[in-house]
Design a protein that fits this description.
Length: about 325
């Protein structure tokens, strides 16, 4: 019986990406082999939820899975919803009634087309294979996402990834997939853009020929409590007292590499943005971006009596000058 990926993750078919991600992380923390050493049941369940998340956690794969069920991967491999060369055959899942109908209909012809000519037409033992198995016999690429703090993006770093692949093996003419744990160290270059993919050759799913697809590591910038992207630059909000904003002066501005002093012109307004050249984040192979310091004028929550007196005098002066 085909696995229900939604059931494995404990979510409904209408769950959004955030719910699916949260469910997977919760189960992964509970079932991870490091947390359950020598527990084969937990290890097996961990592999199952990893496989499930790899599919329904990816919008494109999920769309195909929702439409074709267990056969989604084979449809995906052919492009446009059909295996290569299958347009000359009737293409359906089980004859009348769609996926739930009886019989294989055009499936048998499609499989013959996909594997025809092997071993001189004497038979290969593949007659009972479904589309998933035919597809999984080939090397396949794999994508993984890593979230990196901005401080490490700025300097460059390394990450060791431990992940699961589904590697194909052939036994007595039958192809099956075996969950395999792989480990690889990835170098994250300084200044890599948010969402950039890094290719690690030969670290994806392996086919029956022993060759593996590639691993693509998608680097995401971790949300920072102070800094946020501003085009190609970074932006940071700096609190400034109303007296300093009015009179001008020097203020300290945080950067990813420590604080710097910035001169504030008199009459600076709240929300005004000042540019600090080359104080942002590293650019991949081309220096550093700028830091945009956005001013937020602050006022004392509980002014002293002397402050109140001076503020009243200022208010009176402003009144006479109007």
């Amino acid at each position: 019986m085909a696995k229900d990926y939604y059931q494995l993750l404990g979510v409904s078919r209408k769950a959004d990406e955030k719910e699916i991600k949260q469910a997977y992380r919760k189960l992964a923390r509970k079932l991870h082999p490091d947390v359950n050493p020598n527990d084969k049941t937990a290890e097996s369940k961990f592999k199952e939820i990893s496989e499930a998340y790899d599919v329904v956690g990816d919008p494109e794969k999920r769309k195909l899975y929702d439409q074709y069920g267990a056969n989604w991967e084979a449809v995906h491999s052919g492009g446009g919803g059909m295996p290569p060369g299958a347009d000359e055959y009737q293409f359906h899942f089980g004859g009348p009634g769609g996926p739930q109908g009886g019989g294989m209909g055009g499936f048998e012809s499609i499989f013959e087309h996909l594997i025809g000519g092997m071993r001189g037409g004497q038979g290969t033992g593949y007659q009972d294979l479904d589309f998933d198995t035919v597809h999984s016999a080939q090397p396949r690429d794999l994508e993984k996402v890593v979230e990196i703090p901005l401080e490490e993006i700025d300097k460059g770093t390394k990450r060791t990834l431990t992940y699961q692949t589904l590697d194909a093996q052939r036994t007595r003419g039958q192809v099956t997939t075996v969950p395999t744990t792989k480990k690889v160290e990835v170098t994250i270059p300084a200044g890599i853009p948010d969402g950039k993919k890094l290719r690690v050759p030969g670290k994806g799913h392996a086919g029956v020929n022993g060759k593996a697809g590639d691993l693509y590591v998608i680097v995401k910038w971790l949300v920072h409590p102070q800094f946020k992207p501003h085009g190609d630059n970074l932006e940071v909000e700096i609190p400034v007292s109303f007296t300093t904003a009015a009179l001008g002066g020097e203020v300290r501005v945080p950067t990813l590499r420590g604080g710097v002093t910035m001169k504030l012109p008199e009459g600076t307004q709240s929300g005004q943005t000042l540019r600090l050249s080359a104080q942002g984040i590293s650019r991949m192979g081309s220096g550093k971006s700028d830091l945009m310091a956005k001013v937020k004028i602050t006022v004392p929550k509980k002014p002293t009596d002397e402050q109140k007196r001076l503020l009243k005098e200022l208010a009176e002066l402003e009144g006479t000058n109007q």
